Amino acid sequence: MFEIFGIPSQALFGQLLIGLINGSFYALLSLGLAVIFGMLNIINFTHGAQYMMGAFTAYLLLQHTGLGYWPALIVAPILVGITGMIVERTMLKWLYKLDHLYGLLLTFGLALIIEGVVRNYYGSAGLPYTMPESLQGGRNLGFMFLPNYRAWVIVASLTICLGTWFVIERTRLGANLRAATENPTLVRAFGINVPRMITLTYGFGIALAAFAGVMAAPIYNVSPQMGAELIIVVFAVVVIGGMGSILGAIVTGFGLGVIEGLTKVFFPEASNTVIFVIMAIVLLVRPAGLFGRRA
Amino acid sequence: MERVVDPQAKPAGSMRGWSEPLAFGVMVVTLAAAPFFAYPLFVMQALCFALFACAFNLLIGYVGLLSFGHALYFGWASYLSAHAAKVWGLPPELAIITGTATAAALGLIAGSLAIRRQGIYFAMITLALAQMMYFFALQAKFTGGEDGIQAVPRGKLFGFIDLANDMTMYAVVVIIFLAGFLFIHRIIHSPFGEVLKAIRENEPRAISLGYKTERYKLVAFVLSATLAGVAGSTKAIVLQIASLTDVNWPMSGEVVLMTLLGGLGTIFGPVVGAFVILAMQYKLAPLGEWVLVIQGVIFVACVLLFRRGIVGEIAHLLRIKL
Q1: Directed axis angle between helix A47-60 and helix A100-122, to 10°?
Q2: Which among B118, B249, B291 has the least Cβ separation from residue A295?
Q3: Among A50, A167, A195, A263, which one is most buried in terms of CB atoms within 10 A?
Q4: Domain of B64?
Q5: Of A269, A276, A287, which is closest to B116 when you measure between CB atoms?
Q6: B2 lies in a domain?
Q7: How many structural domains does chain B have?
Q8: For A147, phi and psi rounded to 5 degrees?
C-alpha cells in the first residue's frame, strides 16, 4: 500500500478501473452510434434504451428460461438486434430522405416508449443480476485488488471494439460498407444490396449496445432508466471525438472514462460534469472534434 | 431533402392575410373566457408552457436549429425567479426579470458553444450542456436539491397588485404570454426574421450573400433562451415552486413534443401543442408511467404520419397561413 499525490493507491487504481469500465461502455455505445450514423444518417436516440433492453433481456432470460450470463451474452444482443432491424424496416427507412432531425425525434419517441413500458411492468427500482460464478472473486495485483469480472468487461469490450474496427477498415465487407456510406447509389449500381446492408448495420449497432447492456447488468442494477442518462454522456463523447473515425470513437470512449474516474478521486464534485466540461473546451479549441473533419 | 418546415405551406406574399389576425382574435377571446370554464391554475400553467414552446419554435421553426436542451433556460430561470422572490424578497416583476436575465446569460454561453457545430451535433451539444447544468442544479445548495424551492410567495406586482388572487394572477399571465407571443411574431416578420428563414432554407447561400450567419444564429438563440426564461420565471411565481423536473432532460423533450405536435414553424402550433400535451397529462395522470409511452407514441406518429403537426395540417388543408 502506498500513496500517490496523497491518495491511497487502492482508491486511485480502483477509480481508474471503474473509469475504464465506464469507458468501455462509452466506447461500445459511441462506436455503435458512429456506425449507424455513417450508414443511416440518423442519430439513434434509442441507443440508451436498447442498451437497457440488453440488460433486461439478460434478466428475463435468467428468470424465465434459466439461461445464464454466457448464453445471454450472445442471445440478448441477437434478440435486441432483431427488434432493431424491425424498427429500421418499419419506421426508420421512411426518414432517410428527410432532415436528420426527424430521425432524432423518432428515435427519442421510441426511447420513451421502451422506457415507459419497462417501467410499467418492472417499476423504476433496480433489479439485481448475479455475476456468473466463473468470474466471481478477483486477484491481488500487489498495488490493487482486481475483481475478475471487471477485468473481463474491459478485455471483452476492447476485443469487440478492435474487432469492429478491423472488420470495417480492413475487410472486403467493411470496404463495401464504407463505400456505401460515401455513395450509396454507386454501390447499388455495382449490385450490392444497400438497403439490406443498412438494415444489418442498424441491427449490428443495436446488438453492440445490447452487448454492453448485458455486460453492465452484474455491475449496475438492471433498471429502466439506466440507458437514458448514459446516452446523454455518450452524445457528449461523440461530440468530443467526432463521428468520422472508428478508432477515434474507441480512444475517446476509453479516454474519457479514465478522466472521469480520475476526477472522482481528485475532485469528486465534478465527476458528473467533467465530460461535459471537456466537451465545451473541445468545442472552443477544436470545433470539429478531436478526430472529426470540418464538414 | 425535405426540410423541417415545408415552404410550400406558406403562400408567398400572404403576410397581410386575414387568417393570422382572425386566429389571434379567437385565441384572445378564448383566453378571456377560459378561467370561467377551466381551472385557472391549469390555464396559467399551460400558458407558461405555450410561451416556452413558442420560444423553442423560434429556433427550430424559423432558423432550423433543434435545441434539445431548452429545459436549461426554462428551469434555471424558474430557480432564480423563485430564489429572488423567496429569499431576496423581491417583488414578482423583479423576480421574473432576474430569472429572465439568468436565462439570457446562459443562452449566450450555451449558444456561442453550440453554434460552432451544425445539424445533428447542435442538438447533441445543447442536450449535453443542459445535462451539465442539471447536475449543477442537483448539487447547488440554493436549489434545494430533490425538494426544489417550495412555497414561493407570489407577492404584490408593482407593490400594489396582489397576485395571491388567482384571477389577478391569471390576467398578468395572459398579458405576459400575449406580449411574448406578439414579440416572437414581430421577430419572425422583421428583416432580421427574414434572414433567419434564409439561413434555415440555405445557410451557405445566406453566407455568400454576405450575412454573418453565426451572429444571426446566436442572436436568435439568445432571444429564444430569454423568452424560455420569461416562461420559466413566470411559472415559478404562478405555481410557487421551482424543481429539478423543470431543468431535467424530459422537460427538454416535452417542449419539443409540444411544438412538433402543434406544428413546427407555425406561429400558433406551439400554443395548441402545449395545451393538448398538458391537458393529456392531467387527464391521463392516473395511468402513471403510460403517459411516457403515450408521449413516445405521439412523437413517432408525428414524425411518420403528420410532420406538419395539428396547426400545420389545418393550415395546409385550408390553404391559409397560421
Answers
A1: 30
A2: B118
A3: A50
A4: 7-318
A5: A287
A6: no
A7: 1
A8: -65, 135
ipTM of the complex: 0.90
Q: Which residue of B has its CA nearest to A272?
A: B135
- Cβ distance A105 to B136 less than 8 Å, yes or no, reads no
Domains assigned to chain A: 3-120+132-285 (1.10.3470)
Select the residue from A36, A86, A105, A263 to test the B interface by mutation, using most B Cβ atoms within 10 A.
Answer: A105
Q: What is the pLDDT of residues B6-33, one digit of tens each?
A: 544 454 444 457 888 899 999 999 998 8
H-only helix segments in A91-131? 100-122
CB atoms within 10 A of CB A161: 23
**Nearest-angstrom CA–CA distance, B52 and B256:** 10
Q: Which of B209, B226, B299, B202 is nearest to B259 (CA)?
A: B299
Cell of B218: 446566436
**Residue B185 maps to a domain:** yes
Would you call A109 and B293 a contact, using CB atoms and an 8 Å cutoff? no
Q: What is the pLDDT of residues B211-261, one digit of tens each?
A: 999 999 999 999 999 999 999 999 999 999 999 999 999 999 999 999 999
CATH (domain of B312): 1.10.3470
Backbone angles phi, psi at A140, to 5 degrees: -90, 120
Supply B140's cell numbers: 447547488
Dihedral Cα B17, B23, B25, B27, nearest 10 deg: -160
B285 DSSP 8-state letter: G
Q: Which three cell numbers stand for residue A38?
A: 455513417
Spatial distance between the Cα atoms of B10 and B61, rounded to a whole number of angstroms: 13
